[in-house]
């Protein structure tokens, strides 16, 4: 028998997804979604800005901005919430999808330096200056012996990649990848938590990750309601929505507001185990916590060390809008990532820059054909901080850095805005620690527990079965 009442804590993407799926799956259960702030959606925040003195509007994202088409949990929401017509896609063949860059500062003293295009095909790999480093790493890994000690149950991404692919590969490619996803130091991040597919591939490949990826995985049965979404996403590299990723959280909110079995409490604090002054004491028999783990600890009267074991990375997200076409600002492509400096985190605090106009120009009004040469405005997002720690930054300082990276000085932006994002860094052992945090009828989900992507958060909300 499903319970009479479930409380879902946290109105970010995971909490919204959980309330959505629970309310459909258990129509006779009363669901209360409780959020501390007035606004739902958490870090997903899309804002349409009319540029000062113009009728042009650009869509800016504070958090995630693009989605990958293989994430069925989100495709299902698009189908069920009827958002198909809002979707904008970037085909795999587009330069914006294929050209991804890595900027290796000259002072790093590596053989690879400057702006490098990451190969997107075998042909582009052959002509790439990255070819010798990548070839050596991949071939060496393929033929390399199993080298994981049997007692190692988890290790940092840096340790894993160094062990299998060598130090340069781990530092240059591994650290940059981790910057772009976790805004974290790859020496702190757990491989099993952050990239379980790497760990599994090593096991499947008898000790070699490359051999593991070449071996087919058994297909997994699932029950997603997808309509024609797989056809829509055929040959798509990434996608978003005309009005940004917040389209998803807005649609979830509207759905929940209209449901008879859902109540949303905003600007409400909650106490799990104790009642104090102005907090709402939970009377539900079942609780789904989609809160950051430290926030869950702070409302619990019992100290659970595992909930505060992982640090959070704070990333400064700075959206810049220039009055010039993208062709005058940056190369055509997705953007660039910067690896960890060999001497530690000091100096330029930029983790990477996203060329938003290239993949998301359809969001802006008016939308211009041949946007790369003809658009009047260019939007980019600069990501700073993370493992560099909190520090001062200024827009002129960012432009100085971009000038070094791009070999040309961007003009003064006509508009800019800043948001702060916080991403959990699961450290080695996270996987085991999470298995140990269990409670009666409490489901602990969200980016602090599973993956941090939009797809992972929606999936975690979907997978709560009472
Ligand atoms: C806003 C800052 C974010 C940084 N990481 C994330 C956010 C929201 C979360 C994230 N980013 C990516 C993934 C992988 C999943 C995927 O869909 O591929 C996750 C979980 C990849 C990614 N990184 C950047 C972009 C534009 C994307 C595509 C997905 C997205 O739109 O977030 C750029 C980027 N993100 C961060 C940095 C430092 C950075 C640098 C260029 C941190």
Automatic annotation (TrEMBL):
Q: Which InterPro entries match?
A: Amino_oxidase, FAD/NAD-bd_sf, Protoporphyrinogen_oxidase, Zeta_carotene_desat/Oxidored
Query: What GO terms fall under cellular component here?
Result: mitochondrial inner membrane
Q: Where is the Amine oxidase domain?
A: 13-326
Give the SUPFAM superfamilies listed for this entry: FAD-linked reductases, C-terminal domain, FAD/NAD(P)-binding domain
Source domain of life is Eukaryota
Pathway(s) this gene product operates in, as recorded in its UniProt entry:
Porphyrin-containing compound metabolism; protoporphyrin-IX biosynthesis; protoporphyrin-IX from protoporphyrinogen-IX: step 1/1
Question: So what does this thing catalyse?
Answer: protoporphyrinogen IX + 3 O2 = protoporphyrin IX + 3 H2O2
Ordered alphabetically, the record's keywords are: FAD, Flavoprotein, Heme biosynthesis, Oxidoreductase, Porphyrin biosynthesis
What Pfam families does its record include? Amino_oxidase
According to its UniProt record, which cofactors does this protein need?
FAD
Compartments it resides in: Mitochondrion inner membrane
Any single GO molecular-function term of the entry would be: oxygen-dependent protoporphyrinogen oxidase activity
Gene Ontology BP term (one): protoporphyrinogen IX biosynthetic process
Report the cofactor remark. Answer: Binds 1 FAD per subunit.
EC number(s) reported in the record? 1.3.3.4
Report the function annotation for this chain: Catalyzes the 6-electron oxidation of protoporphyrinogen-IX to form protoporphyrin-IX.
Q: What family is this protein classified in?
A: Belongs to the protoporphyrinogen/coproporphyrinogen oxidase family. Protoporphyrinogen oxidase subfamily.
Protein name per the record: Protoporphyrinogen oxidase
What lineage does UniProt assign to this protein's organism? Eukaryota, Fungi, Dikarya, Basidiomycota, Agaricomycotina
